[in-house]
Amino acid sequence: MKMPRPTPPLLLAISLLVLAWPASCADPVLFPVSKDAATSLYSIPVRDGANHVVDLAGQLLWSTCAHDHLPAKLSCKDPVCKLADAYRAPSCRIAGRPCKKKCTAYPYNPVTGKCAAAGLIHTRLVANTTDGKNPLQQVSVRAVAACAPRNILASLPKDVTGVAGLSASGLALPAQIAANHRVANKFLLCLPRRGEGVAVFGGGPLFLQPGEAVGDLTTVLAFTALHTRKGNPLYYIPVQAIAVDQPPPVLLPAGGVVLCSRVAFTALRPDVYRPVVDAFDRGLARNDAKVDKVGPFELCYNSTMLQNTRNGYAVPEISFVFEDGKRWTFVGSNSMVHVDGQTACFAFVEMKGVKAGDPNAAAVVVGGFQMENHLLQFDLEKKQLGFAMVPSFSECSNFDFTNSQY
Ligand SMILES: *[C@@H]1O[C@H](CO)[C@@H](O)[C@H](O)[C@H]1NC(C)=O
Ligand SMILES: *[C@@H]1O[C@H](CO)[C@@H](O)[C@H](O)[C@H]1NC(C)=O
């Protein structure tokens, strides 16, 4: 079948993708974020309401192929093709063939590690703009996506048709929205524990209900550096140590700390896990309330015997300590998980298949449960991560998605 040729303006727009836009001039773009109970993955409805799993390490926007897709005919030399080609997941063996005629991308399932060779298509993201308080108006934003065979969807939530990559790569969602909707290349992420959280591309402000009490949450962000490494799609943050209430903190050896929305609970490399778990156990000092462990968690307690506060159970705080002494702190609501009606466990797990101290493995992979109900701002222009805990009387699912103008 003969496909229509892309029109020149479209081509122009795509080549502009690789150029940095100087200043923002449009309203940021809003997506609701939901959490799938079965897989603990988060997703956003990016393409005509079709849900896509968000992957902070994802390089592409990809969906299963549909008949009405408009193929993007890109030469191997096209900058967009170079972007598509730039990173191949290590588990993706079919990747690595040089581009000969047709530009090929390698969509990757972040849960199974499966990948496929796929063509690129032109598509449109349909979403509302926002002033940070409500949706404003519907917009349609051009984007380039990969169109993948259905079988690589295995193990993703049932209502999902693809993955929305949120990495710093040029074909991931933040850069595409920044280029084609002319907003700053930064995004806010407020992952929900339940209900609908919020992702905003282009930056703040952000208000959660009750609005008068919470105020613009982007004004209370603390900042640290956001690093990326060559040939590696992960976001790294320069954590020096993990503090468990009382000093001395657990110093972090080589390996780095990465943010990973597709991991349910923060995983600590064995050499980091042991001292952190032991410090938590000592700090809480509730052997009387301990019950049998419930895998993958080691420290579990009879929850009816733990003291409750507005911030979850009264347990030692876990903090990531940065170079300048700044801390990103996790209270009971982010450090204790209910495994059943009577049992709550310390929600950090030991990294599997990795040796203690292996400098090639991350020391800490920060998972979704710990990021929930924190506002995170990924500023890819300033290479900065902003972080703030949502106040206990609100939560990420308190964004007002209604708009009186509709
Ligand atoms: C935009 O917001 C309105 C009002 O809340 C809503 O009805 C509509 O579904 C939204 N559109 C998209 C694409 O999210
Ligand atoms: C938890 O503690 C409550 C109150 O002390 C007790 O009734 C219950 O049997 C305990 N449950 C377990 C699983 O130990």
TrEMBL record:
UniProt cross-references to InterPro entries, sorted A to Z: Aspartic_peptidase_A1, PEPTIDASE_A1, Peptidase_aspartic_dom_sf, TAXi_C, TAXi_N, Xylanase_inhibitor_I-like
PROSITE patterns in the cross-refs: PEPTIDASE_A1
Domain Peptidase A1: 38-388
Top-rank lineage group of the source organism: Eukaryota
Signal sequence, start to end: 1-26
CDD domains noted in UniProt: xylanase_inhibitor_I_like (cd05489)
Record keywords, A-Z: Signal
Family stated for the protein in its record: Belongs to the peptidase A1 family.
PANTHER family: ASPARTYL PROTEASE-RELATED, OS01G0937100 PROTEIN
Protein name per UniProt: Peptidase A1 domain-containing protein
Species per Swiss-Prot/TrEMBL record: Urochloa decumbens
